[in-house]
Amino acid sequence: MTAETTAAHEHTPDARELADLELLLSGAFHPLTGFMGPADAHAVTGHGTLADGTPWPAPVTLALPEDHPAAPGDRVTLRDPEGAALAALTVTERRDGLAAGPVEALGAAEHGPFARLRRTPEEVRKELAGRPALAVTMRGPLDDLEEIRAVARELDAVVLLLPLVFGEDGPAVVRAALRARDLLPEGTLVAAVPLAPREETAVDLELRERVAEAYGAAEHLAGPEPVTIPGPPHRRGLVVFFTGLSGSGKSTVARGLRDALLERGSRTVTYLDGDVVRRLLSAGLSFSRQDRDLNIRRIGFVAAEVARHGGLAICAPIAPYAATRAEVRAMVEAVGGDFLLVHVATPLEECERRDRKGLYARARAGLIPEFTGVSDPYEEPDDADLVIDTTGVSVEDAVGRVLDPLVRGGWVR
Ligand SMILES: Nc1ncnc2c1ncn2[C@@H]1O[C@H](COP(=O)(O)OS(=O)(=O)O)[C@@H](OP(=O)(O)O)[C@H]1O
Ligand SMILES: Nc1ncnc2c1ncn2[C@@H]1O[C@H](COP(=O)(O)OP(=O)(O)O)[C@@H](O)[C@H]1O
């Protein structure tokens, strides 16, 4: 095998797929031993069984980009986001953007918190040693411990708390399980299970039931759905993301907004200007589609980290591709932050007339290849929360048009 093919046969699944992978490897998804192909996924969605008739409630699939070279018969190393090899997937089928096949563990899963509490079904069943168990799957705090005590007494069962840890709320759910354990009968067990929620409640419940069975449960109770009350807007993370052509006014308005916010003094601000990012965070990247996307993902990553801690980040890159902007929105919303997309929609003619840095003239002369708006695309947003054309508008007014909705929406006091 050449170095090239080895490198090609690698893949980092997304968070949801990694969670499913861990359950496939631990046996919590018994009898599944690998990712499904389209036929099984459709059968499961249509009538709750695999194509061969085995009952199973939900699709468990792995998306692999169409341009990934892995073919049936190949082994793909699946890695966690930190690069550790988790499993080998032996591809049996590639269709409809999915890669199907059995998976085999390569190393212990170390990504994510509470690795110590992520016990496998086998370990838990061993500890139960044949005693009946009442499994309680939880996505939030339990509200009726008396019911659990009563059912456990009736069945003479060991209580097995299964906090379902996925996403931002994972640690809080584990803490809720550890607190509940102290209030439940002695011998209550806790095993954290990385089960990503399924959209349909009935499917989600059935899957929880199957996982509980794999852990040796004789009976399963589903804990209540968590009530999430978002904090007030002025304490929530916020990302104000400017997009637009070079010279449209992104940096000028973004800087004005930063200054106005600092003057008010009610929030701290992180400002990620396009040019500055390119000198530091994205030094060395070109303006190819691939590098622009990487640049925007890096900006999104930093902005989402700021938002995760309740901060306010202002970003002002060109960000010409809609799909990549949508990725950043999703990254920010996934950590509970709000995302405001501001399209600085100054027309190309006006940007070119300003030509502050002389770049358009050079691009027209063919001296800068792939120049946005001249020889490279700009996909106009259709999901902008705010659109500003700065033609004939003062900088002060343009800044006001962004600041006003922030104040009205309660993000800034
Ligand atoms: N080929 C090409 N196309 C567009 N822009 C170019 C190019 N080459 C250099 N520049 C300068 O780089 C700035 C844009 O960088 P960004 O990081 O914002 O671009 S992107 O979001 O990654 O597409 C942009 O800055 P702004 O004028 O502030 O937008 C330009 O000054
Ligand atoms: N209302 C306005 N808002 C922002 N910029 C404006 C406005 N009116 C004129 N300009 C000028 O347009 C240019 C915009 O450049 P810049 O902010 O660097 O754009 P970008 O960051 O999008 O490349 C600046 O020279 C700025 O003074």
Would you give an account of this structure?
- With 413 residues, the chain is an alpha/beta fold.
- The protein has three domains: 3-105, Sulfate adenylyltransferase (Roll), CATH 3.10.400; 115-222, HUPs (Rossmann fold, 3-Layer(aba) Sandwich), CATH 3.40.50; 233-408, P-loop containing nucleotide triphosphate hydrolases (Rossmann fold, 3-Layer(aba) Sandwich), CATH 3.40.50.
- The chain is 38% helix and 17% strand.
- It is built from 14 helices and 15 strands.
- It has helices at 3-8, 15-26, 38-47, 121-128, 145-155, 170-183, 201-214, 250-264, 274-279, 289-308, 322-334, 348-354, 359-364, 395-408, and strands at residues 10-11, 34-35, 75-79, 85-90, 93-95, 98-105, 133-138, 158-163, 189-190, 217-222, 238-243, 269-273, 312-316, 338-344, 386-388.
- The strands form three sheets. Strands 1, 2, 3, 4, 5 and 6 form a six-stranded mixed β-sheet that branches.
- Helix 8 packs across helix 14 and helix 10 (289-308) runs parallel beside helix 11.
- The termini are far apart.
- Adenosine-5'-diphosphate is lined by residues 244, 246-253, 316, 354, 356, 390, 393-395, 398.
- It holds the Pfam family APS_kinase.
- Pathway: Sulfur metabolism; hydrogen sulfide biosynthesis; sulfite from sulfate: step 2/3.
- This is Adenylyl-sulfate kinase.
- Residues 12-93 form the ATP-sulfurylase PUA-like domain.
- Its EC number is 2.7.1.25.
